Prior knowledge:
alpha/beta; 9 helices; 17% strand
Amino acid sequence: MNIIFINPRPAQCSIYQTGKNFFEMINCDDYTLHYAEISDLSREDFLAGKIVGENLLNYYDVYIFNYHPITLCILEGIGTDAIKNFGGIKINLSFEVGVNDPYPIDIYNRYAFFDTTVFDHHIIFDSGLYTSNQTFHPFWRPIKGFRYKDRYRSIPKIPIIGSHGLPNKEKNHDKLMQQASIEFERSIVRINMPHATHMGEEYTQMIVDECLQNKPDNVELILTHTYFQNREDLIDWCSQNDLNVFMYTRNQAGISSATDEAILSGSPISISNDIAFRNLHPYIRPFPEWNFTQSILNSQNGIAQFREQLNRNDYLNRFKKIINMV
């Protein structure tokens, strides 16, 4: 069986990166899997239902599209009608998932003109999704390569608190620093905030300025803007923190992608009660039910339980079932 995965053009964005992570998760010897980015393909050929490129085939049994209304429809001008022109099994990935709603109509109206019926199947990155639609398949986010880190039995004298992700005001970095200031006599807060391709640098600078203006005196703030091309480097970064903190209050559709590497790192995690972390809420108590100290001492046990369900063979079998290989 020949399969191709089509990702958006390279960008510092979670949609593109999650697509690459999913490709790695399903890459195995049981079929031939090819990878292409929309920027490598002729627009004219794509609109005609053809994949033309070096080392690519003229026809595939399965086409997997990382189709998002921003990255392909708005930025590339490719509507879902173009998908009808492809043969074989057509699968789409859905990231910005509402609670039991794979394609929510949010305030941005992104999916208002999104025809889900052009795809034969949809892989929905929300393992807790409940749906009666047989074309919607709940999956957990594509994460593999867990690391073991010794359990924390005490709090470091100067704890290192980390948070990473693309800029967003509702990630509440100021509250993170305030909480660190309250709980610890001294602490180091590391915030890595890469510039986002689809956001202006002015927005990033506004958040940086707010962080600098709101830094407590007993907190050492380290601000960086590294976009980790190698996922292992970001996992390394998370593993160096005594606690990785995500204090979102945005309550928008989707499961957070930022926690992926924190989970893989083995370090303790603190999350808010935002719906972006609903996959983790059964395993660790959100802030403020657990403060930072309690999260350092207790969250590793819950994360270990969460990771037990993330079996890659099960992930592959779920995918193979969709393409009729099991």
